[in-house]
Amino acid sequence: MNNLEKYINAFAESLEVAPDQVPALKYGESDQWDSVGHMSLIAALEDAFDIMIDMDDIIDLSSFEKGKEILGKYDVEL
Predict the structure, then answer these.
(1) Contact 14/48 with Cβ under 8 angstroms?
(2) Which of 77, 15, 56 has its CA nearest to residue 26?
(3) From CA 56, how far away is CA 29, in angstroms rounded?
(4) How far is it, in rounded angstroms, from Cα 15 to Cα 43?
(5) Per the count of CB atoms within 10 A, which of 23, 41, 44, 59 is most buried?
(6) H or E element at residue 75
(7) Among residues 48, 75, 72, which one has the least CA distance to residue 60?
(8) What is this structure's pTM?
């Protein structure tokens, strides 16, 4: 599984959505991505990529695309 697949899988599993729905997700715009779902997503991303995400980045993670940008800070290439 490549990094993009891991990234999509982390969203799909933690937010309980189909993988094809993941790219359109935005924080607060779906029932699944609420505050509890957000922390589940952060944990899934940290586990998938063996990183520790800073609090500022946790707060800034507001969409699928923004998450790609944030992971780049941690040398994760998608």
Answers:
(1) no
(2) 15
(3) 20
(4) 12
(5) 41
(6) none
(7) 72
(8) 0.95
